[in-house]
Amino acid sequence: PGPTSCVQRRSAATVAAAAAAGARCAVLRSRRSGQRCSQTTAADTHIATEGEQVGPDAWPVADLALPPVEFSTPRYRTATERAFAEGLPFRLLAFYILQPVTDPLAEAALHDQWCREHGIVGRVWIDEGGLNAQVSGAPRACEDYARFAAARLLLGSAEASLLCKLDPVPELAFEGLRVRHKELVTLGAAHHGLDLRERGWDLE
Fold first, then answer.
1. CA distance 163 to 146
2. Which of 37, 114, 126, 165 has the most crowded Cβ, counting Cβ within 10 A?
3. Is residue 5 part of a domain?
4. Which residues form the tRNA uridine(34) hydroxylase N-terminal domain (predicted)?
């Protein structure tokens, strides 16, 4: 198979299971902001079944009960420098989500479809432990993809928030899109089974 054909569209049964998982957790409370999120039901979440033609408007990103998503942007020395950077036509987006993924292949298929329909390029690795994304696209598309990924993988998490790095760039940072079921971080056989969520603590 070619570089973009290894992720196949999910069957109707897999889609139904993913829809049920995506619609769980009716109410969330953000640990950072303390804001209560609105209820999400299965009717709010549309996922394409096999053979269905879906356009960008069919993904109700703005309507989901989203976990908080924050974007870390460069620090600018002057207002002129900021205005120039923010006027650039594209963005480079990078983030990790370290949460269990029940069906990485099915999840990868959904992310592959979403990114292609929204003009996102780059690479997205998904495995049983979460997601690692480095992608590029239009500013709104990049922000919406981060929110889409958070809604897919962080709903119901005890730490329902996502911090992303978002940089203005003059052109797309990648030539194509690769979405793979692949190990997030290559650590070698000696570290097989290591839980990447077990990290240090902030000192401040």
1. 9
2. 126
3. no
4. 91-183
